[in-house]
Structure formats: C-alpha cells, structure tokens
Design brief:
Layout: E1 2-5, H1 15-25, E2 29-34, H2 46-55, E3 60-65, H3 73-78, E4 83-87, H4 88-91, H5 95-104, E5 108-113, E6 131-135, H6 150-164, E7 169-173, H7 178-187, E8 191-194, H8 196-199, H9 204-212
Parallel strand pairs: 1-8, 2-3, 3-4, 4-5, 5-6, 6-7, 7-8
The structure holds D-xylitol-5-phosphate and zinc ion (ZN).
C-alpha cells in the first residue's frame, strides 16, 4: 500500500523539517483543506499548500472538505497538486463535472464520502474517478478513533471495482494506525492516510514503513 501522511498533525512551526522527512519516507503528502462550513473546523489554505509544494519531492494529495470544491481546481493544478479529492456530499449534482474538470487539468480525481454515506452512492462514478476516499472517521479533525465498519465499506467497494474491471484506487482516511493497517490491506485499501499515528510517534518514518507493509 501507499502511505499518505496528513500534514494536519504535523508541527506547523517545523513544517519544512516534516516535509523533508516525508520526502524521504512517504509515498504522498496528504493536505487537508477545510472551510469551516462543510466541516466544523478550519485547517489551512493555499499559502501553506504553496509553501509545501515548493519543498515536496513526492506527489501532493489534496483532500478538500469544503462546500464549493470546483472553485479550487485551477489553483491546485497551478501549484502542481497530483491528486485532488472532494466530497460527494458537498458537490451533489456537480460531482461528475468536477471530476472531469480535475482530470482535464491533468490531476487524478478523487471522490470522498463520510462514514454515514452509503458506499453504493460512489458506484455511478466508477470510471470517472481515479480514486475513492473512504473516510473512516467523520471529516473535520485529526486524532479520532477508527470506525471499524469502514472495513466492510472498503471491501464492498473493492469488490464492485473488481467486478467493473476498474483500476480506481481506494484511499482510507481517519484513525488509521498500525493496529488496523493489515485489516485495511486485506479489505482492499490501496492508500492509507495517517495523521496522528505518524506525527505523534517518536519515529514517524518507522510508522510509515509499518503502515506500508503491515503484518
Ligand atoms: C480528517 C482528515 C484526516 C486527518 C487524519 O478530517 O481528513 O486526513 O488528518 O488524521 P488521523 O490519522 O489522526 O485520524
Ligand atoms: Zn484527509
């Protein structure tokens, strides 16, 4: 599996050091963008994304938890973001158009859902999304407890993707740790996002390696 540490749990006074550490040990850098409206929290915006982009040696994976994700597609592409995801709950009828717009700018398009959204609601977008982001906590905050029912959701989606002959990837985000990584791999996850498990550890790069190859 690939590991995408979430900078939300990094030390914002030492972001450069953390980005360098990720360059050497992780597969992707996960950036959580929140607007205080779609989720009850505000994280950081483009000045931070731009600064990180200037130092990043691995692809950026931007996760938009905002009401109007379509407003930010162009800016992401300009900054060299590789993967951009947004929530189906936020986009509604605009979802298909936003996925197309993201792809048309040369980025990988991702569709995210919170734990209370039926995984079947992603099925109409198979073929239009490059990856699906299954939230394993409710979007908004790092450091929450992994919701175990997420494993069934991942497995169900994986089966559907296989059936459809789709190569779309499954990313799982929220409460991911060494204790659930093996089960996530078995369920069919391709990318693990981890914030606190990585950054609250005394040896982040070891945690990243353990998440990549769990046992
Ligand atoms: C939550 C964010 C996550 C979060 C993960 O809204 O989407 O990416 O930073 O943090 P942990 O791994 O601590 O749950
Ligand atoms: Zn995230």
């Amino acid at each position: 599996m690939k590991v995408a540490p979430s900078l939300l749990s990094a030390d914002f006074l030492r972001l450069e050091k953390d980005v360098e550490m990720l360059n050497a040990s992780a597969d992707l850098i996960h950036l959580d963008i929140m607007d205080g409206t779609f989720v009850p929290n505000i994280s950081f915006g483009f000045p931070v994304v731009e600064a990180v982009a200037g130092k990043a040696g691995i692809p950026l994976d931007a996760h938009f938890m905002v009401v109007n994700p379509e407003a930010w597609v162009g800016r992401c592409a300009e900054l060299g973001v590789s993967m951009m995801s947004f929530h189906l709950e936020a986009a509604g009828r605009k979802t298909r158009g936003i996925l197309r717009e993201i792809r048309s700018k040369g980025m990988k398009a991702g569709l995210a859902i919170n734990p209370d959204i039926k995984v079947e609601r992603l099925y109409p977008f198979i073929g239009e999304a490059d990856f699906f982001l299954i939230m394993s906590v409710f979007a908004g905050f790092g450091g929450q407890k992994f919701i175990y029912e997420s494993l069934d959701r991942v497995q169900k989606l994986k089966e559907k993707l296989n059936e459809a002959g789709s190569e779309a990837l499954i990313e799982v985000d929220g409460g991911v740790a060494e204790s659930n990584a093996a089960a996530l791999q078995e369920a069919g996850a391709d990318i693990l996002v981890a914030g606190s498990a990585v950054f609250k550890s005394p040896s982040p790069s070891k945690v990243i390696a353990a998440l990549r190859n769990p046992r």
